Amino acid sequence: MVQKVAVIGAGISGLTSIKACLDEGLEPTCFESSHDIGGLLRFKEKPEPGRANIYQSVVITTELANNMHHSEVLLYMRLYAQDFKLLQHIHFKTTVVSVRQTPDSAATGQWEVETERREGQRETRVFDAVMVCTGHFTQPHLPLSDFPGTRNHYIPYFLSHLNETHCSCCYSNSVNIQCSLIGVYLSTRSGAWVVSRVGQRGLPADLVGTSRMDMMIQKLFPSWINGMVEKKLDETFDHALYGPSHIFCVPDFFEQIPVVNDDLPARIISGRVQVKPNVKEFCGSSVVFVDGSIIDEVDVVVFATGYNYSFPFLPPALQAKSGYRLRLYKHVFPPALTQPTLAVVGFIHSLGAINPLAEMQARWATRVFKGSFTTLPSEETMMKEIEKDTVTIYACSEQNPLQVDYIPYLDSLAEQVGVRPNILWLFLKDPRLALEVWLGPCTPYQYRLTGPGRWAGARQAILTQWERVLQPFRTRLVPKPETRASSRRSVIVMFREIMEDEECVRHLHSLGYPLLQMKIC
């Protein structure tokens, strides 16, 4: 029987996993290699080896506020950890060195977890289950071998902070550029669709067009919806105009992860950023592009080319791939295990927040651990579903192997947990709530309406969610202007008074308005 659970990592996935363990009556022990919680969302003044870092001005879309600064998101995570008493279960400055099955794991499902403290002390403990929450931003991807001349060029190719006003070349398909520089050249091989954080009427873009009804229409008419989205994006700024057409020859919108950036169009139109094609080679301090153009005296090259995932502490047998994807059933469980006591949480990407995805994965994993509530299908069935899972609305490729459809994926796990909302039943029982669940943005409250982990305040939270979205805008209260209809009535009344005044009528007639001799009845 599973009781003691090792949680590796104290980012958002690790915190939700600790809470899920506590909700199911399990005993979690979390190991975090750094000195604090937050993971990727905690900005580091000095980058740490083997640990990804966000840039200082990053803004994150969340549900509690509209596009909070990363420091505010970290504050929310601290409040979350304090409110649910998670900190007491975390061992900081402790790195997991290895995770291996015990000799009798076929029967018990147990794992030996070896850890190392900053001071060098090592310790091995046995756990009934393991939750891996280290994410997929672990090893920087630096494709230096793809470009001739990288061994001989004289340009620094990576800097964490660009504080000086120099000329730089950024190579990336999706990059947020710090443009306090004299010249920035954005080199991109295939281009990308650029999406603003601000949606229709100034509302958060991730809350517009993300309802269950929108997802159903998208599923029924994928080509039409794709064309509509691309047309809307081109109305904001023409992607072909802002970069040579051969650069912005991008795939369909739903086949590639878009770039969320509000500043890039303004930087391009002001000339502070120039879009260039793929880099051909480096020659000394010059950069040569595939179209033959050359930029001389480049001071720094920033490779914003993403990260490769890595789980050095796991046995190689658990890191087998299916195509470009790690072989995990529903992106969580390795299918080859005799006992399903190891789960990967937060190793996923979608057009939606990671928090609800990781939370739902953790809720499902902990119930599978307990065994009496949820069981997994046979290994053969799981393998078939893994192979089928690669054929989604997103093309599974080396660039986006972790991509899933947000609402369908959440619903598939919610059904396993027993918390998926029954829309038809809601329309019969509570039509007002049903309409908001069907037509409104799909927020995590929907998975707290019923079943395990039910929250009594979920219904009210759903019905009032737009109030919380609008509240941050109400920083300057002004009286409502008079309606257009009342203004029109005032003009009519004034005109009637003029026409009833004979002296005014004679004056207007003398100015050349003969029709105004007629009075209004």
UniProtKB/TrEMBL annotation:
<protein>
    <recommendedName>
        <fullName>Flavin-containing monooxygenase</fullName>
        <ecNumber>1.-.-.-</ecNumber>
    </recommendedName>
</protein>
<comment type="function">
    <text>Broad spectrum monooxygenase that catalyzes the oxygenation of a wide variety of nitrogen- and sulfur-containing compounds including xenobiotics. Catalyzes the S-oxygenation of hypotaurine to produce taurine, an organic osmolyte involved in cell volume regulation as well as a variety of cytoprotective and developmental processes.</text>
</comment>
<dbReference type="GO" id="GO:0050661">
    <property type="term" value="F:NADP binding"/>
</dbReference>
<keyword id="KW-0812">Transmembrane</keyword>
<dbReference type="GO" id="GO:0004499">
    <property type="term" value="F:N,N-dimethylaniline monooxygenase activity"/>
</dbReference>
<dbReference type="InterPro" id="IPR050346">
    <property type="entry name" value="FMO-like"/>
</dbReference>
<keyword id="KW-0503">Monooxygenase</keyword>
<dbReference type="InterPro" id="IPR036188">
    <property type="entry name" value="FAD/NAD-bd_sf"/>
</dbReference>
<keyword id="KW-0521">NADP</keyword>
<dbReference type="GO" id="GO:0005789">
    <property type="term" value="C:endoplasmic reticulum membrane"/>
</dbReference>
<keyword id="KW-0256">Endoplasmic reticulum</keyword>
<comment type="similarity">
    <text>Belongs to the FMO family.</text>
</comment>
<dbReference type="GO" id="GO:0050660">
    <property type="term" value="F:flavin adenine dinucleotide binding"/>
</dbReference>
<dbReference type="GO" id="GO:0034899">
    <property type="term" value="F:trimethylamine monooxygenase activity"/>
</dbReference>
<keyword id="KW-1133">Transmembrane helix</keyword>
<dbReference type="InterPro" id="IPR020946">
    <property type="entry name" value="Flavin_mOase-like"/>
</dbReference>
<dbReference type="InterPro" id="IPR000960">
    <property type="entry name" value="Flavin_mOase"/>
</dbReference>
<dbReference type="Pfam" id="PF00743">
    <property type="entry name" value="FMO-like"/>
</dbReference>
<keyword id="KW-0472">Membrane</keyword>
<keyword id="KW-0285">Flavoprotein</keyword>
<keyword id="KW-0274">FAD</keyword>
<keyword id="KW-0560">Oxidoreductase</keyword>
